[in-house]
Write a structure and sequence with these properties.
mainly alpha, globular
Amino acid sequence: MTDVLDVALRLLVVFAVFLVLPLVVGQTEHKVMAHMQGRLGPMYAGGFHGWAQLVADGVKFAQKEDVVPADADRRIFQLAPAIALLPYLIVLVAIPIGPSEGAVGQLVDAGIFFVLAVMGVGVLGSLMAGWASANKFSLLGGLRTAAQLLAYELPMLLAAASVAMAAGTVSLPGILNAFEWWWLPWQIVGALVFFVAGLAELQRPPFDMPVADSEIIFGAYTEYTGLRFALFLLAEYAGIVVLCGLTTVLFLGGWHGPWGADGLGWVWTLLKTGVLAFLVIWLRVSYPRLREDQLQKFSWTLLVPLALAQIALTGIVKVAIS
């Protein structure tokens, strides 16, 4: 009975984190973009620094009419937002945020393979939305999503594999237990490849071709309104939390603090994740969207060779120190 309660409590904490952190990232994006672009609108709702902007957005989405196109495949159209969102909740269950066994929702031996496989399922939500909407712009957005997934899944997996080689395990807690700070200089290329490929899988700028509003309205989500559209936005912000959390665990030491200051535990994990989330927002404001051909070329001619080079370097270092 005690074990059941322990698991239930950990899953409840993961669910609470899933509900809170993506909303915090969304609110932060409003504020950061407003400051960087000189837009004062998001600073007024609710008084002090526009604290009620997130509430206003939620009320706005809730009041909008839930429209389903007459020719759409209704069941798949309605199911797509949940398919896009739920995988990130499942991934959060396997991400350790602290050194204790209770700091992870569920221990998964093959943690890297599990989280990357489940994250790939989330893209199916966009494919389902594009196909079921009975809209050519939506279908084109869904096809671009599929092409982007095929291009960037490989370098992301290869970059994660280099860390698994270095640690000698595919378990996320095992990687953290084996982590050494001197890994950072020779794993930095893998970290960049993993992070950039993750941004592309989330369709975040400058890799947002599947939702290029100047070309295909809003891609797979063109026909969505109200809370269903809000779920796709929530999935994007949940994906940012998951990507930044995984990058922290795999490449930045997770709950390990600098100079041996590990006592803060989960605070280090959240702090590093927050800094990376800020970087994601910064990139959105700073860089223009890539063309479709540039997007594909960037992956196959740059990220994949870099990831393979990182694996080769990891092998050399492992042999040299063994």
